[in-house]
């Protein structure tokens, strides 16, 4: 009897040991192995969402005034549109979501804190989030809370705050980071390394001034970039760059402060290191442009502001063939119905966003034209409506036209009225000449 019990115990112990071995060697938790990255990767790119936390404004006159200066950005339903974006991402499960700066309205700490909470469901579903700052995010002297007729200063985001708030959204797991900026690098796929670059100019102490529009790389950051990109090239890989400021001028009339300072030097560096593509934001318009520098062709894809029509974002699919980019948008209308919202501006959000943006473009035209003493008010109306329409098409990337369509616009009465206003005419002409590439789709073959 004792011998039988002993054998039974031995068999039980052996069974437990075998079970532990199976668990250890065959049921391991999933981890990101930088030495063996996935062969197919999908990334969603979102830019310039300019989120302001709802607790920082009310229905008073001061915030209503700020809305009139927002250049067509929608400010009151941002939380809902971001929730709709997160819901869509959880359904479609991209590998990574990248935010390329101006993630807050004007660098309010509370807004960044709230944004982390809004994005956290993505990381809980193992969707990586990567964030870099824009020119409105770090030590912005315009950080405010709006109460009634008052603007009240609110806590600004410091560089250390940004790194801490978004620790799990890029900085903690970086393969390398620049000690002199908020730039970092990570192993992306088998063929590409990802560079998340801080191009912004900000003070190291809280600011009392407006944010700097222009951007640059600090000399130390340039040295870090040269060293890291050489490593990427030595590994027979190409860099993919995400940054806020633009590498190229995407509009002939409006580009000052949007293109990075010392652009020629940066372009030369990127060409020397065979950068595959640059993703940026800042100008709020959806645009794709490519140039050849030192016999190397580098496309730049600017993702339109998420806070304007049509809540757009980019999707890139990376595989052995190369990089495929598609512009997409969030259907907030459907999300509102699914979540039982009752606000008509959410249930008809796309129409609401488009109307808001077109009217802002028309208002811009009226403000300029009204000083030109145009004889007929009806003529001014036609010109303003044309500007509103073409401006919306440019910002949404829907401005590809045939020569016949361009000629029809130029013979219209609204266009003829623009002869009274040299700035507006120059701007509209720059839109009509946007014929470099189609702005919502691009395939970039792998550099073999």
From TrEMBL:
Q: Where is the Calcineurin-like phosphoesterase domain?
A: 42-285
What Pfam families does the database record attribute to this sequence?
Answer: CNP_C_terminal, Metallophos
Q: Does the keyword Transit peptide apply?
A: no
Q: Where are the transmembrane segments?
A: 12-29
Q: Where would I find the Cyclic nucleotide phosphodiesterase C-terminal domain in this sequence?
A: 331-436
Keywords assigned by UniProt, alphabetized: Hydrolase, Iron, Membrane, Metal-binding, Transmembrane, Transmembrane helix
Which GO terms of the molecular function aspect are on file? hydrolase activity; metal ion binding
Q: Does the keyword Cytoplasm apply?
A: no
The family classification in the record reads: Belongs to the cyclic nucleotide phosphodiesterase class-III family.
PANTHER family tied to this protein: CYCLIC NUCLEOTIDE PHOSPHODIESTERASE CBUA0032-RELATED, PHOSPHOHYDROLASE
* Protein name from the UniProt record: Calcineurin-like phosphoesterase domain-containing protein
Biological classification of the source? Bacteria, Bacillati, Bacillota, Bacilli, Lactobacillales
């Amino acid at each position: 009897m004792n011998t039988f019990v002993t054998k039974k115990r031995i068999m039980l112990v052996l069974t437990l040991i075998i079970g532990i071995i199976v668990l250890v060697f065959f049921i391991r938790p999933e981890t990101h192995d930088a030495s063996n990255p996935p062969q197919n990767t999908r990334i969603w790119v979102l830019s310039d969402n300019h989120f302001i936390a709802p607790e920082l404004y009310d229905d008073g006159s001061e915030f209503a005034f700020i809305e009139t200066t927002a250049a067509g950005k929608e400010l009151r339903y941002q939380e809902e549109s971001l929730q709709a974006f997160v819901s869509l991402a959880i359904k479609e499960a991209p590998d990574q979501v990248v935010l390329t700066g101006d993630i807050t309205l004007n660098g309010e700490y509370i807004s960044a804190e709230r944004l982390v909470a809004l994005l956290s469901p993505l990381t809980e579903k193992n969707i990586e989030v990567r964030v870099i700052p824009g020119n409105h995010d770090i030590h912005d002297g315009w950080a405010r809370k709006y109460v009634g007729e008052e603007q009240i200063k609110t806590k600004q985001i410091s560089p250390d705050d940004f790194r801490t708030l978004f620790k799990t959204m890029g900085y903690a797991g970086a393969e390398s980071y620049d000690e002199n900026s908020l730039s970092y690098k990570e192993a992306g796929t088998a063929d590409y390394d990802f560079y998340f670059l801080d191009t912004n100019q900000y003070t190291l102490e809280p600011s009392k001034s407006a944010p700097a529009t222009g951007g640059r790389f600090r000399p130390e950051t340039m040295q870090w970039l040269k060293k890291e990109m050489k490593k990427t090239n030595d590994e027979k890989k190409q860099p993919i760059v995400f940054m806020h400021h633009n590498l190229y001028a995407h509009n002939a009339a409006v580009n000052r402060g949007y293109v990075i300072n010392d652009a020629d030097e940066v372009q030369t560096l990127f060409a020397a290191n065979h950068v595959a593509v640059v993703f940026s934001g800042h100008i709020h318009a959806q645009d794709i442009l490519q140039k050849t520098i030192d016999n190397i062709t580098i496309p730049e894809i600017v993702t339109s502001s998420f806070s304007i029509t049509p809540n757009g974002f980019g999707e890139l699919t990376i595989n052995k063939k190369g990089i495929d980019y598609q512009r997409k948008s969030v259907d907030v209308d459907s999300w509102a119905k699914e979540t039982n919202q009752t606000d008509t501006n959410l249930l008809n959000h796309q129409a609401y966003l488009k109307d808001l943006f077109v009217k802002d473009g028309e208002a811009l035209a009226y403000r300029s034209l009204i000083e030109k003493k145009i004889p007929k008010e009806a003529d001014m109306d036609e010109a303003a409506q044309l500007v509103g329409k073409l401006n919306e098409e440019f910002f949404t990337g829907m401005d590809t036209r045939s020569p016949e369509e361009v000629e029809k616009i130029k013979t219209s009465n609204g266009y003829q009225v623009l002869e009274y206003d040299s700035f507006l005419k120059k701007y509209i002409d720059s839109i009509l000449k946007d014929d470099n590439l189609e702005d919502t789709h691009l395939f970039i073959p792998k550099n073999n």
